[in-house]
Every structure is written in C-alpha cells, then in structure tokens.
Specification:
The protein is of the alpha+beta class. The protein is built from 6 helices and 13 strands. Helix content is about 25%, strand content about 30%. Strands 1, 2, 3, 4 and 7 form a 5-stranded antiparallel beta sheet that branches. A 4-stranded antiparallel beta sheet has the order 9-12-8-13. It is globular. InterPro entries: Cas_Cas6_C. It holds the Pfam family Cas_Cas6_C.
Amino acid sequence: MRIRIDFGGDPQYVQFTDSMNAALVAAFVAAGLCSEEVVGESAEPWTFGMEAYSHPGRKRRVRSVVVSSPSSRFDAIAAHLDPAAIATTSCNGDVIDGTGARVLPCDDLPETTTEVMIGFISPFLLPVKKNGRAKTRFHEELPVSEAPAALKTGLERRARRSLDLGIAIDPLSAATDGQRKHLIQLRRFSSGRRMILPGFAVPITLRGAPEDIRFAYLAGFGAKTRNGNGCPALMQ
C-alpha cells in the first residue's frame, strides 16, 4: 500500500510528528485494523512522511501525507480509509482534522525493479550502537560506512527474514547532504519537555531482488518509521 492523503485547500498545521501518527492510527483502526497491528512491537511495518512547507512559528503547513506499508493488512483497508477519521486534538497544541481530504494513489514501485535510487520525504534516524539497557541515542553525523548495514539490519528485523538487498550511499551525496542533519520534532511530553531527534535525508541506491527492494521502499528506513521517519520517495 502506498497512498497520498491530500488535504487540498485545508492544509494542516503540525509541529510534532507524533500528532500526525496519532491521527493516522485513529483512522487505520476505524478502517478495520486492530490497534496491535498499527502500534507496538508486534505492529505491521509502515511509515509516513508529511509533505509540508515551513510556516511562521514552529508548525509546518502540511499539504499532504504519504503513507506506505508492505503489509497486506494495510493494503486491504486502504479503500475503506475515511479522511474524516484522520483526526486528533493533542495537548501539545496540534489539531488535525482530515475532513474533506482525498485519499489518492501514490508513486508506487514497479514489481520488476532490481535497482533504484530513492530520496526521502521524511528523514531517517540511525541509532548509535549501545550495550545492554543503555539509553538509546541517535547519530548526530551520518556514519557513511556504517549506515547501509544499519539500515538493512532494521529492515530485516521488520521483515522477520533476511533480505537480498544492497544499500549504497553516493560519496558525493554523503559529503554534501550527509553533513546536514535535520532536527525532527517528534513529540512534547506533558512536562513540557520536547523530544527532538537528528535525522538524515541523503539519497540512497537499492539493489537486489525485486520483492526485497519493494519491501524496503514500502516499509521505510531507519528507526521510528511508524512515527513518521524514513519515508522514501522515488528520485525524479
């Protein structure tokens, strides 16, 4: 499943990606998915990216959201998704109301693809390797030599199988785009503290078996994909 939720003439103003996650989860459950299929460790793989412009203040002017998943369960409910159910009123100040939005097909990947270069609608997060139960930290600078293996490991964990997939980062892109981290405002806690994480949007090339490339493209890359990170897009 890969769809675009187009807000048309009623763009949504969103500061925290967690708010859009809550609105989408509500809509998926209303369309027929179980909450365990959408959130939690046993959830199906899915991701989203907000197509947005900067806006005075800290909110983004979101004109549309791309939602992507390789799961047959998500594919089955896509036709039943009600835009009006994409809604939340959060204590962080974000209010989302999808009434009047349109659910449209999005740029899918041909099933025979064996090589493709992709960019990102939403940056991907790369966790720093940790020991035991240490607090999870995220890379502040793109670890070019480690990133492909880390991204593949994350994909295989969500696929619950090994993947015939190669991931490459162009050295020139790494030297330019890779030096620029994106600060992602993930959520605001009731205490007022904010979770802001560093992410990257450097283009990558995928090579391998068509079904595994397709899984990666639909599942998203890096950590916290279901929170709106690592949603890819075909390079134009």
